[in-house]
Design goal:
Layout (H helix, E strand, L loop, with lengths): L12 H11 L2 H8 L6 H8 L5 E2 L14 E3 L2 E3 L3 E3 L5 H4 L3 H11 L4 E3 L7 H7 L4 E5 L5 H14 L3 E5 L9 H5 L2 H5 L3 H4 L4 H4 L2 H9 L5 E7 L3 E4 L3 H6 L5 H10 L4 E6 L2 H9 L4 E4 L13 H12 L4 E5 L5 H9 L4 E4 L1 H33 L12 E2 L11 H4 L3
Parallel strand pairs: 4-13, 5-6, 6-7, 7-10, 10-11, 11-12, 12-13
Antiparallel strand pairs: 1-14, 2-3, 8-9
Bound molecules: glyoxylic acid.
Amino acid sequence: MSRAVDSPRVVNIADLRLMAERRLPRAVFDYIDGGADAEFTLRENCRVFEDVILRPRNAVAIPQCDLHVTVLGKRLDLPFLLAPVGSSRMFYPRGEEAAARAAGAAGTAYILSTLSGCRLEDVKAASRGPVWYQLYLVGGRDVASATIARARTAGYSALAVTIDTAVSGLRERDVRNGTKELLGSSITSKLPFLRQFLMRPRWLAGFLRDGGLMSFPNVMLPGRGPMPYADVAAALEQSTVSWADLRWIREAWKGPIVIKGVLTGDDARRAVDEGAEAIVVSNHGGRQLDGVSATLRALPEVVGAVNGRIEVLLDGGIRRGSDIVKALCLGARAVLCGRAYAYGLGAGGEAGVTRAIQILRADLVRTLRLLGCSSVAELDRSYVEAPVAWLIDAPSRASVSGR
Ligand code: GLV
């Protein structure tokens, strides 16, 4: 499989996206690719990187580039982590283990979604890098507490609590693809949607070999076992986390807590006050509230509000190494990539994820050398020009550096 994702067939992340589209049934591809409502925020997350212009220092020789960062006290060889992506086992057999293995081999961290198909113990064992657990409260507090205890025992190094799922966003593509009907019990409702699977025999063979429809083995319902696979929209309905929940989560989990889903200075300050060690500036990849700010646009305000007290990460829209560079210049310590590797997973399993990481790493090195900067630690606002309106509440250059 690794040859299939090599250059020149796959030169960038968009090529992996096309390969994933060809291999996956429409409902599965659109689950990765789609966003909420009119997909304004989904598009804007990517487009907004074009508003930031790079300012190179030319005639500078850069023989070596240092890409390492320290996140929550752990050294990562790359300034990006693999974001939690639900249902990855539907993209490729044992998908979460494959992605975690690729992340560990590249010297970075993988974040496992609660809504995953592989057991959290198996995912941790698959990676030689740090693994974080992303928490949704599906199944309620007791179920979550039991999972938190399992994650601690298995050696997870951080807990990422997602705070932007009061309800699920309306993912219109999922409605049109019949995701709910496909998961329901009525055969007649399913029938009109089944063709998309028969048209993807290679995917179907792997899916059946991997045991067919996955369940959620990290959501163990008392007396019932693993929660049966559900439409993610239905699962998110029961996942609301409030600030009050953070108190018992903090009791149950003694390690670092990362709050994912911050878009404003106010929420950022609240996360600091609640004792988070880091936040992720995130709009859930444009899958929840459509019409909110692109994450890069929100980053300077959040970095200003945090004022160096905790670590600020960002996800959303990252498809190139230069996108990562821009986010780091505007104050992110590191970023999370979701779709960029999920396309690779859908295209070719672990080899596809490895290729996505390789593309982003090569982009980073090339961008730094062309910028005249020898390490990601040195990136700061002097390397970019961003719209003035973004920077009004932002801190000075000094407080965004220091990785
Ligand atoms: C899961 O978190 C999703 O956004 O689909």
